[in-house]
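Per reviewer request, we include the raw input and output of the structure prediction for the construct analysed in the revised manuscript.
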Amino acid sequence: MNWTPDSIPDQSGRLAVVTGANSGIGYVTARELARRGAHVILACRSRERGTDAVERLRTEAPGSHAELRILDLSEVKSVRSFAEDWSHDRLDLLVNNAGVAMVPFSRTADGFESQFGINHLGTFALTGLLMPHLLAAGDPRVVTVSSEGQRFARFDMANLNAERRYRAAFAYVQSKRANLYFAMELQRRADTAGSRLRSMAVAPGLTRSNVLTGGANSNRGRMYGLFTRLLLRIAFRPTPDGAKTSLYASTVPDLPGGSYVVPDGPFQLRGEPVLRSRERAIQDSATAHELWVLSEQLTGVHYSLPAEPPSRK
């Protein structure tokens, strides 16, 4: 049988943050968690779009509990403010969904290449700064949205920040590989610390969203917009289908930490959620550790989880 949001168990009493929740997969994830009883914080960069999303969610899921908080992953200052302003006693679930894709070259306010800075470093910093609140929960879980495209990344530690050359597609899949490395390394460190925290990664498959047409991509010209919208309509599946892996990883009760949830169809492009362990990046603890150390240096965020470096053979 196909797994659907109707399979989600009762989420009452659970407190969740979904980044980039004003549209696309993030919005559907937030809505379905709220529909099943969770109190959901929509972490959005735009107050206007975030407010519209909260109002839409409350209309589509009557009686749900949702609130908006402003978060811009392109600025470490904004990430720190989000964490410092946290007013709840814990955090049960963090869904690291927000990101950008295939954007023209630019740098964040902190000087990072935008795809690496937002997709990985912003996510890394946010999770670390929220870690005390996650560890205060009884069964904390972190879900990080990677991409099926990460399989094609040539991960170059010497060019993570476009030090030498920038190619939008290369930088994107590399940032998504970084998401997978991060999720797996977080689980290893949680295990070493004896923590109950579970860290998962997901790939949504080809999914319709505004990630290729909004934000920095909205200024790429009329022909780009027409072609991309046509491609999304023909080749990409509906947004609720793409949100399935995020919802599966967020809510299946007995899912083990370190899981990587992907669509079960050809090339992970579409299908139902399934666990996948045959990914080289999942086992590459040495590169994941090296990336973690670099990320701490770049962001200034250090986790409250002790860990020994992996053995190198």
